[in-house]
Design goal:
Layout: H1 4-42, E1 69-71, E2 78-80
Antiparallel strand pairs: 1-2
The protein binds zinc ion.
Length: 96
């Protein structure tokens, strides 16, 4: 009445139940933490992910990022500071 197949099935079933329990508990913890984090972020308790000032500027005003701009010496296009080549004509912008 107690053969190897039955014992194997019982052991596999027990392991499966344990794994399901652990996985479910981990998932619950992940979801709970994510909810907590999003709540904190909504209330402004949490710092933003990045300190990059690019993400702080007003999207309605693309010129208000406070960054210096350089004008292309070849075509006159406005380029954001930090770029080495013009975005319009790819001419070198010089050191900035
Ligand atoms: Zn240019």
């Amino acid at each position: 009445m107690f053969d190897v197949g039955t014992a194997y099935l019982a052991a596999a079933g027990a392991l499966l139940l344990v794994a399901l329990g652990v996985g479910a508990r981990a998932l619950v913890r992940i979801f709970r933490e994510a909810r907590e984090r999003s709540r904190k972020r909504r209330e402004g308790e949490l710092e933003r992910y990045t300190k990059d000032p690019v993400y702080d500027r007003d999207p309605a005003d693309p010129e208000a990022d406070g960054a210096a701009r350089s004008t292309c010496p070849q075509c006159g296009a406005e380029n954001a500071a930090g770029f080495c080549y013009c975005r319009e004509c790819a001419a070198p912008l010089g050191p900035n």
